[in-house]
Specification:
Helix 5 packs across helix 7. The protein is elongated, with a radius of gyration of 19 Å. By secondary structure, the chain is mainly α.
């Protein structure tokens, strides 16, 4: 029974977050979420107290696994710290460049932009996720300093914040149809930034 409940909740989160990413928080009602998931409207409230609660749970559902994958990539002992960071973003560039129409619909970016000021809970959750990502990157950059790949005086917290914020800008450009040129520029600059 519990696994059926979790499966249905995951289905609603997966399908509903896709709708909300494309239509925005205000452009998505509970009706659109349940239609996308193929469930009765009443079922929504067995899992979520409100649309805001749905958005908060969707952030966790989508981004906790992504943060885990990011952490695994940036702690891979088979690569040097610098190779981990550059390789991670080069792989993303390759992924997007291989698509016929490069586009990216970023749930956290869209939700954060639309709702951070209107819903303190959503704003706080978005900030926590983005900060966790920067913290993971900071740890890898600190390893790069220890390995002599970055200058000993490098401010790793500042550099991690700069890279993370620049990446969010790249995703925004990709969403508005900027193609992969901003991503190419990001990776090129990242390689220069991470030279000792």
């Amino acid at each position: 029974m519990t696994s059926i409940r979790l499966d249905k909740r995951d289905l609603i989160l997966a399908k509903g977050s896709q709708v909300m990413t494309r239509r925005g928080y205000h452009g998505t009602g509970v009706q659109e979420i349940v239609q996308a998931a193929g469930i009765p409207k009443g079922s929504f409230y067995h899992y979520f107290a409100s649309k805001e609660d749905f958005a908060l749970q969707a952030l966790e559902y989508l981004y906790l696994p992504r943060l885990e994958r990011y952490a695994q990539a940036l702690t891979n002992p088979a690569l040097s710290p610098r190779q981990r960071v550059i390789g991670y973003y080069q792989d993303l560039l390759t992924h997007f460049a291989s698509r016929e129409k490069p586009e990216y619909h970023c749930f956290i970016g869209s939700l954060g932009f639309e709702m951070a000021e209107l819903s303190p809970a959503i704003g706080e959750q978005v900030d926590l996720i983005l900060q966790r990502s920067a913290d993971i990157l900071q740890g890898c950059l600190e390893e790069a300093v220890a390995a002599g790949e970055l200058a000993p005086e490098e401010d790793c917290a500042n550099l991690a914040a700069f890279i993370a914020n620049a990446w969010q800008g790249v995703l925004t450009r990709l969403k508005v149809g900027g193609g992969t040129l901003p991503m190419n520029a990001f990776v090129d600059r990242l390689e220069l930034l991470l030279r000792a």
